[in-house]
Design brief:
Blueprint: H1 2-17, E1 23-32, E2 37-40, E3 46-51, E4 57-63, E5 88-90, E6 104-109, H2 113-124, H3 129-139, E7 142-154, E8 163-175
Length: about 180
């Protein structure tokens, strides 16, 4: 009876915490250095991995397009905004002894260009951090998790600038339906 009650409580928690009408996308991939990756999501959004020109990593993005220069909705909702960010997959993160990020990368993203512009404008105006974080909490409704399953580096860039050979990853992104502009 106790086990049954605990199981019901756990199931209820999942139901309560899962946004109504949210679409969840699970996928995996393997990409080589310099390659890009894209996956269509819901609401006209795409998950993109943009390769760094120097083959030292990728930037995870959620956007309306995977074209270079498109607004990265994850960049507006995933702090920190200066310094290493979980949406950046840099080769030096995988060097022995580095403890910047684990293999799991959690990030959030906004769902609309207007929300991206709101947050980026306030960041550029150097508004109060509490105000910006409140906007991120309100507007950053999308959630993503990317796990690097395997990464291989080569020695061509030396200890300070290693380059990737490839990464193998899996990802889960949740895109809420409706509720534009707020939680």
């Amino acid at each position: 009876m106790v086990l049954q009650r605990n199981l019901c409580a756990a199931l209820l928690s999942v139901v309560v915490l899962t946004p109504a009408g949210a679409a969840t996308f699970r996928f995996s991939g393997e990409i080589r250095a310099g390659q890009a990756f894209s996956k269509a999501l819901a609401r006209g959004l795409w998950f993109c991995l943009h390769a760094n020109a120097d083959q030292t990593g990728w930037t995870a993005a959620v956007s309306t397009s995977c074209k270079p220069g498109a607004e990265n909705f994850a960049a507006a909702a995933t702090p920190p905004f200066h310094g290493p960010n979980p949406a950046s997959i840099d080769s030096w993160h995988f060097l022995p002894g580095e403890r910047v990020f684990g293999k799991r990368r959690d990030f959030r993203f906004v769902l609309r260009g207007e929300d991206y512009q709101t947050i980026m404008r306030k960041l550029n105006e150097r508004r109060d951090a509490a105000e910006i974080l409140a906007d991120i909490d309100r507007l950053g409704q999308g959630e993503g998790v990317m796990e690097i399953l395997r990464a291989k580096l080569d020695g061509a860039g030396g200890r300070d600038h290693p380059r990737f050979v490839f990464i193998k990853f899996k990802a889960k992104l949740t895109v809420p339906d409706g509720a534009e502009g707020g939680r």
